[in-house]
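Recall from the previous lesson that a structure prediction takes nothing but the amino acid sequence as input. Here we apply that procedure to Renin receptor from Cebus imitator. The sequence below is the only information supplied.
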Amino acid sequence: MAVFIMLLALVAGVLGNEFSILRSPGSVVFRNGNWPIPGERIPDVAALTMGFSVKDDLSWPGLAVGNLFHRPRATIMVMVKGVDKLALPPGNVISYPLENVDLLFLSELQVLHDISSLLSRHKHLAKDHSPDLYSLELAGLDEIGKRYGEDSEQFRDASKILVDALQKFADDMYNLYGGNAVVELVTVKSFDTSLIRKTRTTLEAKQAKNPASPYNLAYKYNFEYSVVFNMVLWIMIGLALAVIITSYNIWNMDPGYDSIIYRMTNQKIRMD
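The prediction returns the following tokens.
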């Protein structure tokens, strides 16, 4: 499967929001264009590129159908805090304007840290048949901007070093999955989340204790299920074959003339 790499640049304010593709396999097709994409549909883009279905149809023309039988094995998203936009080198990068940015999704994708070092030590993690999703948060550039200022030489040098490091990281992850991964980058100036006081009802609290109840999820089998299933299956197959073979042999059996089956009484012999 392929590795798909995307760059998502989220800039505070109404201008500058950007969604970019750093690396993507040939099976994932992104069209060049200036089509804006809502920020809340970025999870749907990531899901569709990996072959998963989404609740609502995505009518965004930037993503083509591609090869349905060759989906990416991983999606990698990198979030950079403290900068509006990175000066990425032109070339294979495809960018789209973003609107209605929803940063809550990005915080929910925080699942792993130090991906490169982990996968370099455990390369078998990238060889399984399950899709992988990694998320990293880089806040060092924000600290440099607060200390030296965003117009300082230190901040510009740090930005350039970060761009080079991200390009290398994207190449490493792309090559690690054999050219079958997606790598995304999100740059966010600040997190402007409104504080909303939410009320809870008794019914809502009851549902929170059992959140899986409305979804009709399948039963969670333990790891010994396949062993027990195979034992029962092959025993049943063996018994069925034994009954069939025994029945066939009995049906075609020739007991011989001296068998009790052909014996007749003396009275029957006299009558004959």
